[in-house]
Amino acid sequence: MDRRTFLHGTVAALGPLVLGSQRDPPGAGHSPPLRDRAAAVSARLRYLELDARYVYSRPCFAPDGKHVLYMRAPATSDPVLALNSNASPWGLWTVSVDGGEPEAFFERPGFGATRPDWCWATGRIAMTGIRGDRGELWLLDSDGRNLTHVPVGDPPRTRLFYPSWYPEGDAVAVTDYATHEILRVDVSSGEAISLTDPAVVWAGMCSVSPDSEWGNPIAFAGQPPDEEYGVADNVLWILRPESPPVTLDSLHGRTPAWSPTDDYLAFSSVRRRPAPAFTLHPRTLPPGASGVFVQHVAGDGGIPRRAVGVTPFDVGAVHPKWSPDGEVLVCMAADVDGPRRGLALIDLRV
Fold first, then answer.
1. Preceding peptide of 287 cis, ω within 30°
2. Parallel, antiparallel, or unpaired for β 148-149 and 134-140?
């Protein structure tokens, strides 16, 4: 049978977190009490980095699945401002998923290394490099060397963010925030093809599916064209070859990431449903608190299943990325006992 018809085995543990398995017919089983499910959600989270001297952002897994690559910058008197500023002195760091001391991967004065995506096929890293007020497409080798600029367009575009590799490693999808469109960029030539129409949808961060059979569908955060772009207005969209983009659902969603098995999306959202486990969480939830969700989305256009929350809302989890084996997510998350924000792993096998 087609594996897209069923939950991937390593993600099957998500089933009990909703009111019964999404695959079972009515009456086929009973879900655990809400309180037990809330405890299970909290148990998934394990912090990797949580040091108030630094701000951390936008992690991703190395091809070996044993290390995480992420952005790091010194915290200032206003850590929130430092976290959200492209002007912060961002460098790339790595840390083992087993913990231990982080190691510098790439740092260069006057150059902000941000939003990395590690190609598991070639080992190359694509990222947004910040020089002054320009956001450009840059590449690194797997050892953090050979920094290479990829000029995109003529004159080169300067607001390119969130590159996402195509599985063969010869191209990336990247969002041009000057035009609110997604481009497919050949990393050898810099040749770009527009994939979305800003007259139809303003696109934000995107993720390329590894499913070549269905033409590598792209998931992206987007919203109807308006006077101003705002992340609070985003919903998730799916773009398949030779088809107009369609919304995944009508609820808030951003920072999508396709699973390595190509049939799941992880994303962050402020939606409060359908995640009843969080309604019994013992802490007070601040307005707009974000959680990470996982949703089954078959690449062939099958009916999406209901999104399942896999983090408590009070840690403000955002920017999830999958491990190569599809069993763990890494994300940004806050310390529930203090103001610090860091990196956390979400174990989907719990």
1. no
2. antiparallel
- 228: helix, strand or coil: coil
Contacts of 234 (CB under 8 A, 6+ apart): 204, 221, 222, 223, 252, 253, 254
Task: Give dist(CA 67, CA 8) in Å, integer.
Answer: 23
Rounded to whole angstroms, the Cα distance separating 37 from 310 reads 10
Instruction: Record the pTM.
Output: 0.86
What is the rounded radius of gyration, in angstroms, for the C-alpha atoms of the chain?
19
Nearest to 276 by CA among 303, 247, 306: 306
Amino acid at 231: V
How long is the chain? 350
Q: Which of 307, 318, 312 is nearest to 279 (CA)?
A: 312
Asked if 67 and 94 touch (Cβ cutoff 8 Å), the reply is yes
pLDDT digits 0-9 by tens, 130-149: 999 899 999 999 999 999 99
Cβ pair 298, 261 in contact under 8 A: no
Tell me which of 191 and 13 has the higher pLDDT: 191
pLDDT for 71 equals 98
More confident residue, 338 or 60: 60
Q: What is the mean pLDDT of residues 180-190?
A: 97
